[in-house]
Amino acid sequence: MSKVQGCMKCVKYLLFVFNFIFWLSGSLVLAVGLWLRFDPETADLLKENDAPEHFFIAVYILIGAGGLMMLVGFFGCFGAVRESQCLLGLFFACLLVIFGAEVAAGVFGFLNKDKIIGDVLQYYNSSVENGNRTAVVNMYHKVLSCCDAKSSTPSELCKDCNEAIKEFFVEKLFIIGYVGIGIAGIMIIGMIFSMVVCCAIRNSREVI
Q1: Around 93, how many Cα atoms within 13 Å sit in the side-chain half-sphere?
Q2: N or C, which end of the chain has less CB nearby within 10 Å?
Q3: Which residues, in sequence order, are CB contacts of 1 under 8 Å at separation 6+?
Q4: Using one digit for the tens of pLDDT, what is the confidence trace for 107-148?
Q5: pLDDT for the residue numbered 148
């Protein structure tokens, strides 16, 4: 016999539906993280051993959080159906950890935006000055469709590479930030649902 009745039973099934959506959201976050990591354009720009790595730190946080969200979403569904106070408590704790990771990824992307872009600009400009790095410079020109002052292409026919780099990485970092903060908001709802059902199960046991 179910331990929760009436409105609380409705909340239990809402929690189940939420966890299924949460699992789907986790797969989306994981997909976005993997896309940002293995996007051919980004990979080409930062594939050298001495290329800046700060950008990928936020991406790795996003990938880890997405994978954990899928796992936690599955256990959350199971805990809601089984009305397990232990599993729901564990679900709440995991949500709290993922919440912190998602916020960290979002905040890292926003707060370190200038530093990340500055590191990439420094890497590119040092490559321009270093005659032995023409392959790196040519890759930036190809991927971003840009040119620099030393290029043989007239400047009015292509975008300045410094501006192109800024636009490219600002777009990617805002994706990380908005995904992280958006999913964090969803998790707050999940934590509320899990605590409501958990308290309902505990109260029903006390009545019994």
Answers
A1: 6
A2: N
A3: none
A4: 776 777 888 889 888 888 888 887 666 788 888 888 888 887
A5: 73
Kindly report the pTM of this predicted structure: 0.70
**Alpha-carbon span 4 to 72, nearest angstrom:** 22
Q: Which residue has the tokens 């797969």?
A: 27
Summarised one tens digit per residue, pLDDT across range 155-194 is 555 788 889 999 998 888 888 777 777 777 777 877 777 7
SS (H, E, C) the chain: CCCCCCHHHHHHHHHHHHHHHHHHHHHHHHHHHHHHHHCHHHHHHCCCCCCCCHHHHHHHHHHHHHHHHHHHHHHHHHHHHHCCHHHHHHHHHHHHHHHHHHHHHHHHHHHCHHHHHHHHHHHHHHHHHCHHHHHHHHHHHHHHCEECCCCCCCHHHCEEHHHHHHHHHHHHHHHHHHHHHHHHHHHHHHHHHHHHHHHHHHHHHHHC
Distance of alpha carbon 105 from alpha carbon 103, whole angstroms? 5
Encode burial over 29-46: b for 16+ CB neighbours within 10 A, e otherwise. bbebbeebeeeeebeebb
Predicted confidence (pLDDT) at residue 58 exceeds the cutoff of 50 = yes
- Other beta carbons within 10 angstroms of residue 70's beta carbon come to 17
Confirm if 32 and 66 have CB atoms less than 8 A apart.
yes
**pLDDT level of residue 1 (50, 70, 90 thresholds):** very low
